[in-house]
TrEMBL record:
Residues of the Uroporphyrinogen decarboxylase (URO-D) domain: 51-60, 169-185
Pathway membership: Porphyrin-containing compound metabolism; protoporphyrin-IX biosynthesis; coproporphyrinogen-III from 5-aminolevulinate: step 4/4
Subunit architecture: Homodimer.
Protein name, UniProt field: Uroporphyrinogen decarboxylase
Swiss-Prot/TrEMBL GO biological process terms: protoporphyrinogen IX biosynthetic process
Family: Belongs to the uroporphyrinogen decarboxylase family.
Length: 376
């Protein structure tokens, strides 16, 4: 037995050596990587057309996904690598997307901490034992990585199925967002419990983020060794915080994750929502790419983050609009990017369940065709 990523810490339940060898896989050569438009854009190199992928591109708007959900729960899909790989590949069979993001749930790492997790119909995730006091942080056991192994195996399957030009993206939730779920007990609008804990139990807060940071680093390294060529860190709830609180109580841990993963030679994307007012702080994470939501124009966001790549940032609601209006909105994003190297087209958040698959086809085709014409 050994871990995929070496650690001086004891107590980890480790991956069998046979599975570890499979997970480590064969890294793509530099020559192969230049054939991927998305990887080139992450490095701010020139591309023939703007690469495009969509958050939640695999999910409830696709009838083939809904058919699987009639037979399997969300956690069952995540726990069976062949099913997770199948869901990941579904949109790639429909659309000429430039990346596949592995299908998993952002909260899988809490299972590694022994925290009960379930999904209530129509209500989202439910944390069975929320953290409400410092003692609960100290009771968290040493992580058991086995709930994360299926993600690595699914990545290996997906990478083997896709052509070289399509990048495989791994992902994880950032420590603040994971901590918020653990403290709130599920989704929230105001994050009152999280903010109270952060502001009144600062030592325990830092111990919790320390645990989540180490776990997230190991999780992302596991994905990279399985074949992920880019990773995205979702800090979906960071916009709930004031800039000063984000800088002092969140940024140092996010920065550590980014630095650790970049040492493996893969680009890191940091995505957050509601942070248009302090994108300069988000850029201080050191990520290669900053993902932005639709609450700020792309050119203004790019000025705020400086000399790095940018991802975004069409409002997902435009996919519900008439086709010509959708194209017009996408054109505005692309015009603001102005063909500069380093733009990855995406939505400002995930595809809405009400979206027509035909609308996604229209969007992907338009982004490729229009951005190629602009470069001619």
């Amino acid at each position: 037995m050994r871990t995929v990523v070496d650690s001086e810490r004891s107590g980890w339940v480790t991956m069998p050596i046979s599975m570890a060898k499979e997970a480590e896989g064969d890294h793509r050569s530099d020559d192969a990587m230049v054939n991927s438009p998305l990887l080139r854009a992450c490095r701010r190199k020139t591309v023939d057309m703007t690469p495009v992928w969509l958050m939640r591109q695999a999910g409830r708007y696709l009838p083939e996904y809904r058919a699987l959900r009639e037979r399997y729960s969300l956690l069952e899909l995540c726990r069976q690598p062949e099913l997770a790989a199948e869901v990941t590949l579904q949109p790639l069979r429909r659309y000429p997307l430039d990346a596949a993001i592995i299908f998993a749930d952002i909260l899988l790492p809490v299972l590694a901490l022994g925290v009960p997790l379930s999904f209530a119909e129509g209500e989202g995730p439910v944390i069975g034992a929320p953290i409400r006091d410092p003692a609960a942080v100290d009771r968290l056991p040493e992580p058991d990585e086995s709930p994360l192994w299926p993600v690595a195996e699914a990545i290996r399957i997906v990478r083997a199925e896709l052509p070289e030009r399509v990048a495989v993206i791994g992902f994880a939730g950032a420590p603040f967002t994971l901590a918020s779920y653990l403290i709130e007990g599920g989704s929230s609008r105001q994050y009152v419990r999280t903010k109270r804990f952060l502001l009144t139990e600062r030592s325990a807060w830092e111990r919790l983020l320390e645990r989540l940071t180490e776990l997230t680093i190991r999780y992302l390294m596991l994905q990279v060794r399985a074949g992920a060529e880019v990773v995205q860190l979702f800090d979906s709830w960071a916009g709930a915080l004031a800039p000063a609180v984000y800088r002092d109580a969140v940024l140092p841990w996010t920065r550590r994750i980014v630095a650790a993963v970049r040492e493996l030679g893969v680009p890191v994307i940091v995505f957050s929502t509601g942070t248009a007012g302090y994108l300069d702080l988000v850029a201080d994470t050191g990520a290669d790419v900053i993902g932005v939501d639709w609450r700020i124009e792309l050119d203004r966001a790019w000025n705020a983050i400086g000399a790095r790549a940018i991802q975004g940032n069409l409002d997902p609601a435009w996919l519900l609009a008439p086709a010509e209006d959708l194209r017009k909105a996408a054109r505005d994003v692309l015009d603001r990017a102005a063909g500069r190297p380093g733009h990855i087209f995406n939505l400002g958040h995930g595809v809405l369940p009400e979206t027509s698959p035909d609308a996604v086809a229209i969007l992907v085709e338009f982004v490729h065709e229009y951005s190629a014409r602009v470069r001619d």
